[in-house]
Amino acid sequence: MSIEIHNETPADVDLEAVRGVAALALEHLQIHPDVELSIQFIDTEQMSQLHVQWMDLEGPTDVMSFPMDELQPGAQAGMLGDIVICPDVAQQQAEANGHSQADEIQLLTVHGVLHLAGYDHGTAEEKQEMFGKQADILRAWFARTEPERTRLPIPTES
């Protein structure tokens, strides 16, 4: 599996943790191990531009996903797509939700991978399925990396 990560911001992002949680999400979703994934950390200005360009919404957002080959679970290798995350928005959300920026970035990474795999939260049923998978992956991640942890950054909204 090839996970390419670039941080174009001054934010101190644990890129190995991001790589690890993304790999776990791909494994959990049974995405072919030879897929390619790109994760990029960008500033609020760049994120605002993408948000307007692709969603016709003003202002920055936390995470955006851009699927490439629309790979499904069990599919062969290919380019899964790109995820862009804004650490500044992640920091604001982390503060509002009482956890660290690192936790929020890991949550957003999983959220982005789920979108690339075809999950969405446009309806109540879709949201329940997507957020359930997101919670399962985050529980598995923190059980692996911080087994003593009792509180996880698992939101009901995103």
TrEMBL record:
Enzyme class per UniProt: hydrolase
Cofactor requirement: Zn(2+)
InterPro entries, A to Z: MetalPrtase_cat_dom_sf_prd, YbeY, YbeY_CS
Record-listed E.C. numbers: 3.1.-.-
SUPFAM superfamilies: Metalloproteases ('zincins'), catalytic domain
Note on how the cofactor is bound: Binds 1 zinc ion.
Record localization: Cytoplasm
GO molecular function, one term: RNA endonuclease activity
GO cellular component terms, semicolon-separated: cytoplasm
Binding positions (Zn(2+)): 111, 115, 121
Database matches in PROSITE patterns: UPF0054
Keywords, sorted A to Z: Cytoplasm, Endonuclease, Hydrolase, Metal-binding, Nuclease, Ribosome biogenesis, rRNA processing, Zinc
Coiled-coil residue windows: none
NCBIfam families reported in the protein's UniProt record: rRNA maturation RNase YbeY
Role: Single strand-specific metallo-endoribonuclease involved in late-stage 70S ribosome quality control and in maturation of the 3' terminus of the 16S rRNA.
Protein's name according to its UniProt entry: Endoribonuclease YbeY
Protein species of origin: Brevibacterium ravenspurgense
The gene coding this protein: ybeY
